Amino acid sequence: MFTILVVDDEKVIRDGCKRIFTLEGYRVLTAANGREAMDILVSELVDVVLCDLKMPVMCALELMEEMELRHLDIPIIIITGQGTIPNAVECMRKGAYDFITKPFRTDLLIMVVKNALEKLPPPPKFKTLPF
Predict the structure, then answer these.
(1) Which domain holds residue 61?
(2) What are the angstrom distances between the C-alpha of 65 and each of 3, 42, 130?
């Protein structure tokens, strides 16, 4: 089962995304800001991060920098109400997988997450030892 981390300072967005992706069969974790997200990322296995661009405490760009410093190679999809072209370019340049503007369509959000999951490397295969 894949795990999605939803990071947004708006509880209604976190709860809505959690409901959407739980119904799709994913495990969903939530955080209200980038600092909470980092605490989760260092203790949980997460496959994709959905993150609001502008948040108090730590914004998405700061979270992306912290993830890079810690070598956390996890696709991050930016969701924002501030969907300007310069914001999108900056996020993509800094390594975001995709950029979605609010309000977003549920089917588009699901499709982008599924596409990001398809790009993940396959899990390592372990050799069994003969006994």
Answers:
(1) 3-118
(2) 21, 14, 44
Other CB atoms within 10 A of residue 78 CB? 26
Tens of each residue's pLDDT in the chain, 131 residues? 899 999 999 999 999 999 999 999 999 999 999 999 999 999 999 999 999 998 999 989 999 999 999 989 999 999 988 767 787 788 888 889 998 888 889 999 999 999 999 888 766 666 555 55
Q: 124 lies in a domain? A: no
- The alpha helices in the chain, defined as continuous H runs, are 11-23, 34-41, 60-69, 85-93, 106-118
How far CA 84 is from CA of 60, 79, 87, 92, 100, in Å, comes to 15, 12, 5, 12, 11
Interatomic CA distance for residues 108 and 59, integer angstroms: 23
Domains in the chain, number: 1
Q: Is 17 a member of any domain?
A: yes
Model pTM above 0.70: yes
Asked if the structure places residue 81 within a domain, the reply is yes
